[in-house]
Each structure stands twice: as C-alpha cells, then as structure tokens.
C-alpha cells in the first residue's frame, strides 16, 4: 500500500545542515564505481548490532524488533512525541519513519533524534519517495535527515503504480544503483520495499519485477522483504530469500490470510494469524538472507492502533520463545 503523507507540526528551519551541500553536489556529479565506494566504508557497515557481533562466537546474535510507524499513522499524525513514547513503552526497540519525515526541518529532526535517544529507540531505516534518490538537493536533504536519525538504509517505499515495462524498471534500477554509490560514503545505502505487483511476471521476457531489481542493483542495495505481499501474490518467500543471500537486511513482519478485509482477513490479521510460514522464513533470513533487524507492520486490524502493535509484538515474542 502506498502510504498517505502527513507532516507533524515542526519549528522553522533555522540551523545549518550537518554536512556541506556544496561538497555533496560536487560528489553527486562524479561517476564513482560502487565497488570502490563500498571499500571506503569501514568494517561491518551492514551489521545491525556491532556489540552482538563482537561479543564472540558463543554469543547469540540479537536481532532488534521494530515498528513501521505506518502501523500507528493516525496517532503519529496527531502526536509524534506521544507516539514514540507509547511505542517504546510497548517494548519496541527501533522504528521506521515513512515518507512524510522528509518534510521535517533539520532542527526538528534533531529534536526527534533526542526524543528517541531518551526513550532508547533507534531508527535503522526510513521509507522514501524517489526524490531521496535523485542527485542534487533531494538526495542532499535525505542524507542530512537520515544521518541525524542514525539511519543506515534509505528504502524506496513505492515505485508508483504505472506500468513501467522491463526497460522502465531497468532505468529505475540504474538510478537506484547510482544512489547507492553516492550514499555509501555517508554511511548509508539504498533499498527497495516490495509490493504484490512486483511479484508478477513482466510481459517482456516473463521475469518478475523483483528478479529484475535484484539482478540490476549492486549487492549493497537492500531488498527489504515485505512478507505479506509476497504471500498474497503466491510467491515462495523462502526461495526468494535463498536466491538473494546477504541482501534481505530487513523484513516487514506483515502477515496475510485469504479472505476479505471486511471479514478481518487479508492484511488485517495480526502477526502469526495468517498463512505465512514464519519458522521457515526466519530461519532462512537469519542463516542466508543477512537480516539485521525486523519491523512489524500492520495496515489495520480489529483492534485500535496501539493495541494492534502490542498484540503483534506479544505474538512475535511468543514465536521467538517457541522457536
């Protein structure tokens, strides 16, 4: 689902950005190979928990559990600070802001980061429109905001509903690959969030859009996996993960069940109530996929927003304990 925009109330932009626009604009005009830029990023750039990684071979790796804030969009539009407090109180460790965050001023973003720090929340990824991946002022602002928030992954939330065809998707991949090269020196990378339509074969050649994206973007490009839309499309989630080792760095834990939304089916089921083979999926993303963190996402349910978020997290914790 393409997420509706909102922009919370914010103070006026009165401070200078944290990194030089002139420096970035100069960089964005350079054709720098992705491989060389990747080598300039130190160490475990894509590790979700450096502490866990350095704890030694006997330490169990910790995978943070977060909430895609579209799940609580009504509350977020009315009261961002209160929403963050409630999300932290429920027990989430990280959040994912969606596209309207791009309208924030730099001072407002710094204030949001302060609030997250006070609550013990992290933000590893954001959802973005295409302007965040367009060289120039658009990408410059996205870099500024995401560096402040502590983000690592700028995810393209949607490529639009128009029929692009094979060449159109390849052209988009070229733009996203260029964005990876320009983001890496700033400690960031780009990625894509799948929807149901991207699992369908194209008329030209019969390739699925997701396979085109995977084949035409560099390994540093994140393939954020929305499980529910994969299930609705009838695709094999485990086969997708194993075909793209190390690239499924975040997972949207959205379930799906056959039936009508008005009967509380479709995406309205809570995590664990649908038909997704979660045990196999989690095993695959942790052993092969390269997952760094998980995000629960809910488009709506039979419960209010925060109750939905709480119940989904409870289901996730029980699932992990049983696993």
Description:
The protein has 323 residues and is α/β, with parallel strands linked by helices. The chain has one domain (21-322): TIM Barrel (Alpha-Beta Barrel), CATH 3.20.20.150. Helix content is 41%, strand content 11%. The chain is built from 13 helices and 8 strands. It has helices at 21-28, 34-39, 50-53, 73-78, 80-90, 106-119, 137-149, 165-183, 209-215, 227-233, 237-243, 278-289, 305-322, and strands at 65-68, 94-97, 122-128, 153-156, 189-193, 222-226, 250-252, 293-296. It has an 8-stranded parallel β-barrel, surrounded by 4 helices. α12 links the parallel β7 (250-252) and β8 (293-296). α6 runs parallel beside α7 and α11 runs parallel beside α12. It is globular and about 45 Å long. It starts with 20 loop residues before the first helix and ends with a helix. Mean pLDDT is 86; it is low at 4-56.
Strands, helices and their partners?
Layout: H1 21-28, H2 34-39, H3 50-53, E1 65-68, H4 73-78, H5 80-90, E2 94-97, H6 106-119, E3 122-128, H7 137-149, E4 153-156, H8 165-183, E5 189-193, H9 209-215, E6 222-226, H10 227-233, H11 237-243, E7 250-252, H12 278-289, E8 293-296, H13 305-322
Parallel strand pairs: 1-2, 1-8, 2-3, 3-4, 4-5, 5-6, 6-7, 7-8
Helix pairs in contact: 5-6, 6-7, 11-12
Going by helix content, strand content and strand pairing, the class is alpha/beta
**Helix and strand succession?**
HHHEHHEHEHEHEHEHHEHEH
Roughly how many Å is the radius of gyration? 19 Å
User: Structurally, how many domains make up the residues?
Assistant: 1
Average per-residue pLDDT, rounded, comes to 86
Please give the share of residues in helix: 40-55%
CATH architecture, by name, is Alpha-Beta Barrel
* CATH fold category name: TIM Barrel
Shape: globular
Q: Which blocks of ≥5 consecutive residues have pLDDT under 50?
A: 4-56
Distance between the termini: 30 Å
* Number of DSSP strand runs: 8
Total number of helices: 13
Largest sheet: 8 strands, parallel, barrel
CATH superfamily: Divalent-metal-dependent TIM barrel enzymes
Strand arrangement within the widest β-sheet reads 1-2-3-4-5-6-7-8
| CATH classification class | Alpha Beta
Strand content: 5-15%
